[in-house]
Design brief:
Layout lengths: L6 E5 L4 E8 L3 E3 L4 E3 L3 E8 L16 E8 L3 E8 L2 E9 L8
Antiparallel strand pairs: 1-8, 2-7, 3-4, 5-6, 5-8
Organism: Homalodisca liturata
InterPro entries: Calpain_domain_III, Calpain_III_sf
Protein name: Peptidase C2 calpain large subunit domain-containing protein
């Protein structure tokens, strides 16, 4: 999971609302005559406020604050409030090795 792309998000105010939308490209699958959607989701992990590099290991002081279940949809959304701090958003597919774009 931590080898996936990671996106830093800074929340400046206490209890600020955050909206995250993860969308995958529509890929036409000629074998099934339809579109292929991977099971996608994401995690939001609270990290140190001075972190500037990617997270290589999840420690006790870097808790997962949001875990969005994987869904076979073109897009998944999260809307909620987070405390002030720095967070990393990590998009994932259900099966390791699947590469959604």
């Amino acid at each position: 999971m931590l080898r996936n792309p990671q996106y830093i998000c800074d929340i400046k105010k206490q209890e600020e609302e955050l909206l995250v939308q993860l969308m995958q490209y529509h890929e036409f699958n000629s074998e099934s005559n339809g579109f292929t959607n991977f099971l996608i989701g994401f995690f939001i992990i609270k990290v140190e406020e001075n972190r500037e590099t990617r997270l290589h290991k999840q420690w006790e002081h870097t808790p997962t604050v949001v875990s969005l279940d994987h869904k076979r949809r073109r897009e998944v959304n999260y809307r909620g409030c987070l405390a002030a701090g720095r967070y990393i958003i990590v998009p994932t597919t259900f099966r390791p090795g699947d590469k959604a774009h």
